[in-house]
Design goal:
Blueprint lengths: L3 H10 L4 H13 L3 E3 L4 E3 L2 H5 L5 E2 L5 H12 L4 E5 L3 H10 L4 E3 L4 E5 L10 E6 L5 H13 L3 E5 L8 H4 L2 H5 L3 E6 L5 H6 L6 E5 L11 H8 L6 E3 L5 H18 L1
Parallel strand pairs: 3-4, 7-8, 7-9, 9-10, 10-11
Antiparallel strand pairs: 1-2, 4-6, 5-6
Helix pairs in contact: 1-2, 4-5, 6-11
C-alpha cells in the first residue's frame, strides 16, 4: 500500500498522472491493511491509527489458529501480544514460532522483532491487593511494558494490612498513572484514590468468597468509589487497564 502523501507528492511533481493516482488510492482504500486468514481478519494497520498493534485474545482460539495468527502478524508488525493463553497452547506456539516467549503469571505470549525499549518517560505503578489477584495484575503490567512504559509492581498491599501500602506510598505517588487491582470488596481503589494526585485505573477481579459474586461486588464498589479520579475497567480486565495506563504515560511523555 502506497502512502497517500507520497501519491500526492508524485502527482504534484508530475511523476504520476491523476488517473493513475485515482486508481492507486481506490485500490488502497479497497483493502485497508487487512490480512484474511479465513477464520480471522487481521488488522495490520491498527498501530498507525491507535499507537498499538492488534492484540490477540487467546480464549476460544485453537492452537492452530493462534499459530497462524502469530505467523502472519510477525510478518507485518514489530511486536505481538496474546492474552489469556493456557500453558499447553503456549508451549505449542513457542515451538512453532521462533522468538515467542510465554509469561506464565500473566498468561500471555509476546514476540518482538527487536528488544522492547522503555520509550516513555516516567512509569506506571501496578498496585495489587492480594497474591490471588496477580494474574490480572501481571496482565496489566505486561501490557503496559509492551506499550513501552516502565512498570513498578507493588503487590500484596490490600486493606486488611493497610500498613503495607503506606510503606510503598512514595513510589505509588510518583507514578504517572496507577493501576489498582483488587478482588473481595474492591476497597483498595478507594483508599489509593484518597492518597494520590494521579489518574487511577481500577480493575475488579473475580477473586473472593460467595458474595463477591465473581467480581461484581468489587466492580460495584469501584464504580461507587467516593474518591474521585478513578476509572474502572471490566472484571479481570488487566489488559484494558494496562493499555489505558500506557496511553496516559505515552501522552504525558510526549509533553515532557
Amino acid at each position: 500500500m502506497m502512502d497517500l502523501e507520497k501519491i500526492l507528492k508524485l502527482v504534484r511533481t508530475g511523476d504520476l498522472d491523476v488517473e493513475e493516482a485515482k486508481q492507486q488510492i481506490t485500490r488502497d482504500l479497497g483493502s485497508p491493511g487487512t490480512a484474511d486468514l479465513g477464520f480471522a481478519q487481521l488488522d495490520l494497520e491498527r498501530e498507525k491509527r491507535t499507537g498499538f498493534p492488534e492484540v490477540i485474545f487467546g480464549e476460544g482460539k485453537s492452537t492452530e489458529q493462534l499459530i497462524a495468527i502469530f505467523r502472519r502478524l510477525t510478518e507485518s508488525i514489530d511486536r505481538v501480544l496474546a492474552t489469556r493463553i493456557d500453558p499447553d497452547k503456549a508451549a505449542a506456539v513457542c515451538a512453532a514460532v521462533e522468538g515467542v516467549s510465554y509469561h506464565e503469571a500473566a498468561r500471555a505470549l509476546t514476540w518482538f522483532k527487536r528488544p522492547i525499549l522503555k520509550v516513555h518517560e516516567g512509569y506506571i505503578a501496578v498496585v495489587c491487593a492480594g497474591t490471588s489477584d496477580l494474574p490480572v495484575a501481571e496482565e496489566a503490567a505486561l501490557t503496559a511494558e509492551c506499550f513501552g512504559s516502565h512498570v513498578e509492581r507493588v503487590y500484596d498491599v490490600g486493606v486488611a494490612g493497610i500498613h503495607r501500602l503506606f510503606r510503598r506510598l512514595d513510589l505509588i505517588r510518583d507514578a504517572n498513572a496507577i493501576v489498582v487491582v483488587a478482588g473481595m470488596e474492591g476497597a483498595l481503589a478507594s483508599v489509593v484514590g484518597g492518597l494520590v494526585s494521579k489518574p487511577i485505573v481500577a480493575v475488579p477481579t473475580s477473586i473472593g468468597y460467595g458474595a463477591n459474586l465473581a467480581g461484581i461486588s468489587a466492580l460495584l464498589s469501584m464504580l461507587n468509589a467516593c474518591s474521585p479520579g478513578i476509572a474502572v475497567v471490566n472484571i479481570d480486565n488487566g489488559f484494558g487497564a494496562g493499555y489505558y495506563a500506557g496511553l496516559i504515560n505515552k501522552n504525558l511523555s510526549k509533553r515532557a
